[in-house]
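Risk register update: the risk of archive-format incompatibility is retired. Evidence:
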Amino acid sequence: MDITQEILEKCARDDRKAVKCLYEHCFEALMPVCYRYHINEEDARSSFNLGFIKILKSLKTISGDFNFGGWSKRIMINTLIDEYRKVKNYNSHVTSKETDRELEFTSSSHDNEGESNMGYELIMKLVMGLPEFTSKVFQLYVIDGYNHREIGELLDMSEGTSKWHLSTARKALREKLDEIENTNKRLVV
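Archived output:
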């Protein structure tokens, strides 16, 4: 089901049926984004609801045709980042291991047969197993398409730190995938 301009206009006028229709559409399209940023379903749903409220409020200020899918996804991601910042500020005891040796790691791409045979759920489980900042940077850069400058602004870090977190994520994921691939090879033999 596509969201028409008529439904969006009705939502801006607080038409309950149109809002329900929009909610169902957004739930299907945007909940996977929320699941990527939260470990449990409760937190993902809570963030989705906050984001949906922002989408509804913002509809009243938008006029004319626009790409609703991209616009709503951007609002949802910004909401997720805002929620993350609140939690990060509340839990200010996050430790960072940015030693000189760790900053020297650079990412280099290579084909890994294990990666191509992995399911989405397993890959996301591995990503969620990374340290919190590293996981967020990886998701924002690789999955959501943000650049390092934007990530730095969103997460209050420098571009270099964002690049370091991405490099660290790639290295850690590569090691985990190689480990899984080696385990699978041993099981086959």
